[in-house]
Amino acid sequence: MRQQDRLPLILERLAEHGSVSVVDLSAELQASPASIRRDLQVLEEQQLLKRTHGGAMAAEVIYELPMRYRGGRSQEEKRRIAQAAVRLVDASVHSVGFNGGTTITELARLLSTGRALKVVTNALNIAADLSVRPAIDLVVTGGGVRPESYELVGPIADRTLADISLDLVFLGVDGIDAEAGISTHDEIEARTDHCLMRSTRRVVVLADGSKIGHRAFSRIAPIGEVHMLITDAGADGAELDRIRAAGVEVTVA
């Protein structure tokens, strides 16, 4: 297993248990103790953990993995969700909005159209991918950079979004719950996401099964402001029923 594949797994174990040991990680990841120690050093240099004798502990509570370490998680499920979502961008849709996140990034990569399409996003990585496609008229919001998600957030982004109107918005979230609504880890990002939602009459949330029934720190919007949810077969069926009962169309990809 390559180091870039081991690092997110180490962070996941650290988030689950609060500490990890070189011996346990070496056995689980089938890597030498020396390789694991180098992995821990890399993560410590990024201030994501604190090394201890024989292992490491969280430098602080880890609520959110940086996006660069989330790309491989539930990758196949995210790809299926994105494939279902891209079919919604039919001939009747002339403008779409994207926030950030790994599932939305998968959707943006699939976006291919021979006709003109206006895309508004606050995600730097998505903007970079779409900027070279001649059929796409790209608008980037501006704002302060949130390094965990590569998103532009805050008052500048909010003011940009307040003055536009879109046919369809795709939103990635960290949690969706029938009672709590949709949520994310950061309160400033939540406000910018809500501004993006208000720019359209149709909001489609993309969330893999791990996000269903989960509540993150800051609410983006109540469930009544979501029109459609696309998720995967790993989602909790009872919670999906509650989301449907709240008036949300649910597609399981």
TrEMBL record:
InterPro entries (UniProt xref)? Carb_Metab_HTH_regulators (IPR050313), DeoR-like_C (IPR014036), DeoR_HTH (IPR001034), NagB/RpiA_transferase-like (IPR037171), WH-like_DNA-bd_sf (IPR036388), WH_DNA-bd_sf (IPR036390)
Presence of the UniProt keyword Transcription in the record: yes
What keyword terms does UniProt attach to this protein? Transcription, Transcription regulation
The yes or no answer to whether the keyword Cell wall biogenesis/degradation is present is no
Residues covered by the HTH deoR-type domain: 3-58
Q: Which GO terms describe its molecular function?
A: DNA-binding transcription factor activity
Looking at the record's lineage, which domain of life comes first? Bacteria
Q: Which residues form the signal peptide?
A: none
Which protein is depicted? DeoR family transcriptional regulator
Q: What is the lineage of its organism?
A: Bacteria, Bacillati, Actinomycetota, Actinomycetes, Streptosporangiales
